Amino acid sequence: MQIMDTTLSALFGSPGLFYSDIIEQILPRLNVHEYHFTSDEWFQDWVKSDNFDLATSNGILALELIDKAHLAATTALFRTKRWVTATCLAYDNQNLVAWASSVRGFIENAGDIMDGIRNVSTALAENHASISSALSGQLSTKALDCTEIERILDHFVFAKWMRASKADVRKAKDNIEYVRELDLGKVPKIIEFYQKLCGITHPSSSSIDYIYVPISEGFKLDFNRDKTAIDELCHLFPMVLARSLMYACNPPLLTLRVLHRFGHHPRLPELKKLNWKEIPEWAKIEPALNRYLAPPGARVIRRRT
Q1: Does a structural domain hold residue 50?
Q2: Rounded to whole angstroms, what are the CA distances from 235 to 11, 225, 230, 272?
């Protein structure tokens, strides 16, 4: 759609067109994959049984780990695509409240991705020798330990608002904590921008201030200033949306690129369009991947159900 492309470029700059095109192309490949996870009850009973086998156990754990990583990356990209679309539609319909709500959701989503899967690709790359050995059934002398990676992925996939201690992996963090992840990533003025969005979306004075127009002896109301108000915010914070989009897309795309090495998920030739060397994290990932190549013809341990 030409209108959407124009809006994408106006709001998100060249990253908007680039990442939207890649996501649009790879999502149909990603959603053909099926996920099957072993129940905790069965696994714990099996571990205690005479049929337990360490190599098989490691294979199950490794396969479920890379599937969780694939699931997290896929859903992150899909959710980002939805928020970007909602932001563009609100802009085209000149609805400031809808636009601010969509952008706020997009910002929180980007921060959640940074918090949840930013380090997953590097961790998979640095541990891919043991993971590959486990997948091929060759890791039989010690237990595979990917607890920290699994904890991060479980929080991203399963976290929700709940009354529980912060130590509970299922407990979602406060929204501002996710936004601070973007602040740490050097997205300019992200906290100030987010606070302005909250003022518009909450029932506060900021949600109606933009319709007041001063005149010589007072003010009048102008209900046609939504687009002007949006453009003013974009002008005040010119880099926020484009930079946040990169932080929302790069971690899941890096994860999918590393997962290619294990040969279990659909291959994504479209990822060749990315200049990986422009992404700082790739400097850690590439040498880690090159340290080990999976043995040819290695079999993959299948889950028991």
Answers
A1: yes
A2: 10, 15, 9, 33
